[in-house]
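Input set for joint prediction.
Command: fold jointly, output tokens.
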Amino acid sequence: MWHRMLRQCGDGLFLYARQLCRNDADAADIVQEAFLRIWRKHANNGVTETDLPAMCYAAVRYTVLDRQRQAARRWRREAAAGEAWYEPPPMFVCPLEQAEERARLEAAICKLPVEQREVLTLKIWGELTFQQIATVTDDSPNTVASRYRLALAALREQLGKAGIP
Amino acid sequence: MSAEFDSLEHQLNSLRPAHLPAATRGNILHEMERGRAGHRASSWQFIHRAGFQVALAGALSLTLMVGWQFVSWSPPPGSVFDKPSMVSENTLLPSLAFLEAQLTPVAPTSTSTAGGLRSPTILTNLQLRR
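tokens >
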């Protein structure tokens, strides 16, 4: 079950961590730490496979916030310095003929406010329900659904400006 | 409006997230395997602990002692207990009859002593020991 879970959710967890911390190396570490934390906690207590994805995403979020709290100053300094020269690798993989479209979508997603981007990531690539997303982000399901609609509207606007139908 | 959202969602769905680095995936699997192996090793180490071995030896000794006492309470073959008359008189109380027969030559018992020995409490204890 755990191997299957890692295969199914590993990429989504990595994307979510990248959205939150904007640093690939840290994101990979965070996914590892969060997944193993959930595994150690629930490996022997009969947790169901349907509950696991939301728990893993919540653990990633918690780990990111925990690290940010621990080293807030260092984090901000590195992030500011890093963003100046570091160009992150693409967040999505796609065939070469769709590379241009991918780049536009990715740029539009990156411009979204972090709350909307978070909900969009959990909904589309994490395949969670609004209820599950609400437990991950500690918000109400209505707030989450509203953020999702706003994110889609903002994306549509940006893509419309960029000339994508 | 809804159709617009649907087409956009479809576009977004067509994007697949970049893969989790193979090294990280490998690390996670390795840690999980190591955790499982560690769990097995810890139970195996527990068996080899001195405290566990002393407890096991104590339990075995106790079992042997209890077993030995149980065997020593069994009537020896050819004893007075084997006599048909004794069996017929004390069918329900064979151990008491055997005890009486053993005690009589050493310390002659009065009727009251024998009666005491036949009291329900003692009988129960003797029966329990049997």
